[in-house]
Amino acid sequence: MMSTRVLTLRGSPRRRGGIAAVVGLSLVALAACSGAGGDDDGGPAQIRIALPTGVTSFANADVVVADELGYFEDAGIEVEIMNLRSGTSVANGVVGGEFEVGGASIEPVVNAFAGGAEISVFASYADRLEVELVVPEDVQSVEDLAGRDLGIQEVGAFREAMTRMVLEDAGMTPNDVNYVSVSSDAYVSGLVQGQIASAVLHPEQGFQAAAEDPSLHPLVNLYEIEPDYFYGAYFADNAWLEDNPDAARGFAQALTRAHRTMYAERDRVVPIIAEVTSMEESVIDDAWEVYMQDVQAFPRNVGLEENRLEYTLERMQQMETLAPGAEVDLAELIDRGPMEAAVEELGEAEQRE
Fold it and tell me: Taking the model in full, what pTM does it have?
């Protein structure tokens, strides 16, 4: 039988001074350029952003890049970025009014919407899977994970959904393993110490794991088996989007500028991402090649491709990561308006391969 238990794992030491688990980033400036997001009184729009991991990953560092390079400031926006435990926690926070914008993998967002939450996805971070299932040397096949302790965040959150996908592909289910709840910065140490037998790792975490224990190895590349699966979404309460169209458009514009800079100016963004992820610049530089060249994980334009979202919803139904009996109308869940307005103003960029 599947079991879920909580194991407190000690994370690896922070490699450099950086931004703590709860990050407050503020910009106090008059709106410049388009002035898209400013309040009616001329001051900057205030946006509290929640991210789904205790330590920001490369995958959702785009908002930090946008902040550090002044793109939010240009849009008349002041942001406060908070790090939570999982996408489920983020969804609860947005629905509860603690945050204006949430970043999470698509699964908890879809399930919150299916449960009656009045929210919309209006932008995305890394929307292509760039993660791998990493395991110790004695695991050479998915079947070798039977009866072992596998690291996840929470049932229904991103890493559990990806683990379930790998198990399903091998004809297994979560009932064949034991789930262990692990904090986002403790997967590598858990693998190195032998406390878990698998973890879904982002590229920078994978490089870190290999450096600490060369016997750890990727068993499954999720992008290779699921290239059409949609990953990271930014979402907000519908009432906030309706009441703050300029702020939503300004957020989308700043995000799009950040994505384009991340592709075009490697040397400029690597130090920013290394700082927020608390990793060495050499590790982030290696990870940049995976995110920005191999996978091309971030959209350069509107993103939110309908065919990929439809496919992902079907996969969630197949894997039973979508609440039983839930009906999801993507036309109601997805609001492309802010991104379309942002791209119209910035101009269309070259599409990803």
Answer: 0.87
